[in-house]
Design a protein that fits this description.
The chain is 50% helix and 18% strand. By secondary structure, it is of the alpha/beta class. It has a single domain, classed as Rossmann fold, CATH 3.40.50.450. A hairpin with a 2-residue loop joins strand 4 and strand 5.
Length: 134
């Protein structure tokens, strides 16, 4: 079974984002039955109030254990933590995909860099998209 690390903003709206991530992952696991999705938010959301104190340790674990053990990294939205995770995946030459509009597509490093540059130019800290079943 293929392992995919799933990156999504969290700390700007913890409960809302946890719900969004759960919704997205439930949808994805129904579509991709051969993939085990690894969600750092589900693993560490119980730190909620103490998260900043443990952020460095959590990010290190996400990178050195979770991302390194996964074949791919998929993301839905960008935050400072997501950027760290995506950049680390690129360093390891992992396949990176973006989830948007209910679909998953591979995104290359050039497109990721353009997305990051656009966000920095527009001073966007968090962005994400949720799709709703029709």
């Amino acid at each position: 079974m293929k392992r995919v690390f799933f990156s999504h903003p969290y700390s700007n709206a913890p409960l809302l984002n946890l719900s969004r991530i759960t919704f997205i992952l439930n949808r994805l696991k129904g579509r991709y039955t051969d993939i085990l999705f690894i969600s750092p938010v589900h693993a560490f959301s119980y730190f909620n109030e103490e998260k900043m104190r443990y952020r460095d340790s959590i990010m290190e674990y996400c990178k050195k254990v979770m991302i390194e053990s996964c074949e791919e990294v998929w993301f839905a939205g960008i935050s400072s933590g997501c950027l760290e995770e995506i950049e680390y995946a690129l360093e390891l030459d992992k396949r990176v995909c973006i989830y948007e509009g209910g679909e998953v597509r591979e995104i290359d490093e050039i497109e990721i860099r353009k997305l990051i540059d656009t966000m920095e130019d527009e001073d966007i800290i968090y962005t994400y998209q949720i799709d709703v079943e029709k």
